[in-house]
Amino acid sequence: MGSGRLRTPPGAPPGRARRSPWNRRRDWVVVAGIAVLVAVLSTIVAVKSDNLHTSRALADPAAALPAAPDAVPGSMTQLWQAPSAATPEPIGQADTVTTADGGEVAGRDPRTGQIRWHYTRENLQLCTVDTAWGRINAVYHKSMGCSEITQLDPATGRITAQRNGDAELGTRLVSDGTHVTTTGKHLLDTWRDDLVKSMEYGKVPFLQNPNKQPRTGCTYGTVAAAAEKIGVIERCPGDPRDRLTVYRATAEHEDEPQVVFSTVLPGSRARVIAMSGDLTAVLLPDKKQLVTFTGNGTEKTAYPMDLPAGELAGDPAGGTEQISRTASAVYWFTGTKTVALSRDTLAPRWILESALGPGSIFANQLVIPIRDGLAVLDETTGATLRTVGVDRHGYSGPVRLTALGPILLEQRGPTVAALR
C-alpha cells in the first residue's frame, strides 16, 4: 500500500495544471469595462441625486413682531431688499418674510432681512412660489415643466408635504382658500392642502381614461378661483368666440371634471378677473364691459370698463390678474389703474388712476402703490387721504404689497423690499 498519492504511469507525459477561465486577456478587458461602466453609472446617479444637491437649514419660530401702528406713518424708510424673482407678490407669514430666487427659498427676519432658514435645490430652478393654507408652496422646474412641489412651514422651514405634478412652464398658483390650482395653456391641476391632486382639467398627460374631459384641443387664458370652484377662459376649436367655464375643484374622479356651467361669450380676448361666491367677473374688451355671471352662467350685470388697448394685448403673465382682497373689496390692477370691486357683488366701486399695483391693508388703512410712494385711501369712496414718499431707488414698474406687523413689503419686479 502506498501513501495514497496518484502516481503517473511510467512513460506518461507530465501532468499540466488546469488553466483559469479568467486568465485570458479578453476576460480582463470585459471585467475592466464592467468596472468602468459601474463607476460611470454611480457617478451619474450621484450627480443627479436630489439629496446631493439639496441643502437645508431649519429655524425656531421667530420672535413676535410688534403690532402695526394705528395709522400709516407719515414717512417710510427701506430696511433691506433681497432678490426674489420667483414670488409674484411678497410673502409675509408667521413673523417671517419668505423670498425665493434661483433654487433657494429662504425665510428672513422682517427687520433685517437676515436668513433664518432656507431650502435650496442647487440643480433645479424655481418656477413660482406662493402661499396657501398658512404654508409656502415652492414649485420647481424639473425634467418636464414645473413638476416638483415642496411645501414648507414659513416659521421654521420644515417640509410639510411634497409631490410631483404636471404644471407647465410659466405656471402660477391660484387659491380659493381650500384648494390651489396651477395655471397653464393646456392643463390646470388642483390640489388640496396635503398636495394630493383633487382635479385635472384639460390635456391630461399619460391619459388612461379617454373621453372624461368636456372638451379637447382648447387653450386657456386667465384663471380665477373661489368657493371651491375654478373659472377659466377657454379658446376651443369650433367656438366662434371665447368661452367661460366654471368647474368644481373636486369630483368623484380627479380626471373627470364636474362642470358647473360653460358658456360662449359675446366677444374675444376675454379675461376672468375675479370670483366671489357664485359670481364670476369677466372683462370683455370688445364690448368695453366688465360683466358678472351668476352660478348657472347667466349674465347678471354689465358695467362700462374702457381700458387702454395696450393693457389688453394678450393674456397677463401666468394667466392670472393682479388682484388683492380685503374684508369688503377686491382690488384689481389693470396695468395703469386700480379698480375697486365690491367683494359681495364684484360691482366696480371706484377707480384710482396712475397706480402701480392693487394695494393692501396696512396699519388699518388701504394703501396703493403710486409713483414715488404710496397713496393712503378711503376704502369706501376711493378718496386719497394723503400720500407717503418711498425711495424705490430708480425702480418704476408694478409693485405688489403685503403687510406684516409694522413692516410693509414691496415686490418690485424680481426684488422684495421691506419698509418701516
Helix share bin: under 10%
Low-pLDDT residue intervals, each spanning 5 or more residues: 1-8, 42-47
Please outline the major beta sheet. 5 strands, antiparallel
Q: How large is the share of residues in beta strands? A: 35-45%
Q: Which value, in Å, is the CA radius of gyration?
A: 30 Å
Q: What coarse outline follows from CA principal-axis ratios? A: globular
Strand segment tally? 33
Structural class: mainly beta
> What distance lies between the first and last C-alpha atoms, to the nearest angstrom?
109 Å
Biggest sheet strand order reads 1-6-5-4-3
* Average pLDDT level: 91
Q: Supply the number of helical segments.
A: 1
Structure description:
This protein has 420 residues and is mainly beta. It contains 1 helix and 33 strands. It has one helix at 25-48; strands at residues 54-57, 78-83, 91-93, 96-101, 104-108, 115-121, 125-132, 135-141, 146-152, 159-167, 173-175, 180-182, 187-191, 197-202, 219-226, 229-235, 243-248, 259-264, 271-276, 279-284, 289-293, 299-304, 322-325, 329-333, 338-342, 348-352, 360-362, 365-370, 373-377, 384-389, 399-404, 407-412, 415-419. The strands form 8 sheets. The protein has a 5-stranded antiparallel beta sheet with strand order 1-6-5-4-3, with no helix packed on it. Strands 2-33-32-31 form a 4-stranded antiparallel beta sheet, with no helix packed on it. Strands 7-8-9-10 form a 4-stranded antiparallel beta sheet, with no helix packed on it. The chain is globular and about 85 Å long.
Topology:
Layout: H1 25-48, E1 54-57, E2 78-83, E3 91-93, E4 96-101, E5 104-108, E6 115-121, E7 125-132, E8 135-141, E9 146-152, E10 159-167, E11 173-175, E12 180-182, E13 187-191, E14 197-202, E15 219-226, E16 229-235, E17 243-248, E18 259-264, E19 271-276, E20 279-284, E21 289-293, E22 299-304, E23 322-325, E24 329-333, E25 338-342, E26 348-352, E27 360-362, E28 365-370, E29 373-377, E30 384-389, E31 399-404, E32 407-412, E33 415-419
Antiparallel strand pairs: 1-6, 2-33, 3-4, 4-5, 5-6, 7-8, 8-9, 9-10, 11-12, 12-13, 13-14, 15-16, 16-17, 17-18, 19-20, 20-21, 21-22, 23-24, 24-25, 25-26, 27-28, 28-29, 29-30, 31-32, 32-33
